[in-house]
Amino acid sequence: MPSDPRTWTLGRPARAAAPTTWATPPAPAGPGAHVAVVGAGIAGCCVAEALTRRGGGRVSVIDARGHPADSLPPHLLGLLEPRLEKDASTAATLHALAAPAAAALYDRLATEGRNPWRGRRGAVSAERGRRDDAWRRVVVDRMGWPTDRLALLDRDAATARIGVPPAGDSVLWHPGGGALSPPALLAALLGETAVIPAVVASITPGEGGGWILRAPDGAVIVTADAVVLATACETVRLWPAAHLPLRPTRGQVSVLKAAGPEAPPRVAVSGAAYASPPVQHTDGSWWRILGATQRPWRPGDGDPYTPRPEDDARLRAALAEGWPALADALATEPTAEALAGLRATTPDHLPLAGPLFDADALAASHGDPLRKAARTLPPIAWPGGLFTLCGMGSYGLSTAPLMADLVAAQVTGTPWPLPDPLAEAIHPARFAVRALIRGRPVAP
Ligand SMILES: Cc1cc2nc3c(=O)[nH]c(=O)nc-3n(C[C@H](O)[C@H](O)[C@H](O)COP(=O)(O)OP(=O)(O)OC[C@H]3O[C@@H](n4cnc5c(N)ncnc54)[C@H](O)[C@@H]3O)c2cc1C
Fold this sequence. Notes:
Structural class: alpha+beta
Number of domains: 2
InterPro entries: FAD-dep_OxRdtase, FAD/NAD-bd_sf, tRNA_S-uridine_synth_MnmC_C
EC number: 2.1.1.61
Domain FAD dependent oxidoreductase: 34-409
Shape: globular
Low-confidence stretches: 1-20
Enzyme class: transferase
GO molecular function: oxidoreductase activity, acting on the CH-NH group of donors; tRNA (5-methylaminomethyl-2-thiouridylate)(34)-methyltransferase activity
Helix content: 25-40%
Strand content: 15-25%
CATH superfamily of the largest domain: FAD/NAD(P)-binding domain
Bound molecules: flavin-adenine dinucleotide
């Protein structure tokens, strides 16, 4: 457990002389440690991959649904596309770093014979309203990326790529983006790592250190030196002491029977809705995904996983806003199936990546000093060896690899892929720290 006083910078100007920032994690698990990753979604699979790559000892992955290659619908597709902004906010910087890192990892998997990409490569975005042609020009200038990563396409060039014209004068072209098969991607990330099919009901400290993970009947699933909870909204139930402000947002996609391999859009497009390029199924048929709705979900709202017919109409209407010609073309492609799920979102739309903590203990030890803007603070009593990566919102495929690499670096004590201020911006304790600075309760 570290014992040096920390300088807390969140919510205040960073001090140049800060010895360490408040986001410094607990002591890393030692070499050869056994790390249990709970959750085999994109977050957990990226953490498992990063731990293995960083020499993190033995890695066990546990998921209630078993191996994702067996449990996820084979028709599911997700889009990788950077979320770009014209300012240099922390969120914009994180997204601008994360998406190329994700594409590079997925490209590496492809070169190793485990290709997660589906359909023709590249993604086009054309949002409407404020994000007009002038906005896109500013974004391209500000990013300064090479044209094999980002380019502005005029209407004719966009039409040639997509197969139908966009509504506006230009679109952003992301050659490194595209459509991914989540079952193939997660299997590729896991590689040889097996998934233990089990529901984790509790996580308790072991007598001699480490953690004990138990099933609902009390049986021990594994004991581990360190644990990473990559369990989306379930993280709140598994570690309630942190009072994490995770909110479920329901989403639904439509699986369309595509008219053929050249039917537009030939590359992924996005705006108020997104559409993938046509992808061929093993039976020779062509399909695509039209996505995705976004609605906050509360326990009284019914089963979130049951598809709702009205959502298909909503998606087609949303597509028509930004891509009227495309919406007309897709009117001839029937909806074969709909798939629904929950996203875990946070109030600032950034993930939670880093050590877990006890918010009430933090309030007791740090409430007063934080409120009084004390320059140094008592050491944080981290429950050592307990981490999370959750709250991935709508961009898990883009953000998970970089965020997982940060968590794996903290677990193993290896160099971080992000500077301290960016790690603070996604630290799981940031909401509790902000609440304490403002003299508010730590529970949301
Ligand atoms: C309709 C829809 C469309 C989307 N489209 C895109 C897209 O195009 N691009 C994109 O980047 N993102 C997209 N997203 C968002 C993306 O799916 C999420 O960001 C991502 O799934 C989050 O991954 P995760 O690993 O954090 O959570 P999850 O995928 O939810 O994985 C969590 C895992 O933890 C397991 N688990 C939970 N509790 C326990 C427990 N107690 N014991 C054992 N296992 C447990 C679950 O079984 C699950 O497998 C979409 C989301 C939805 C709903």
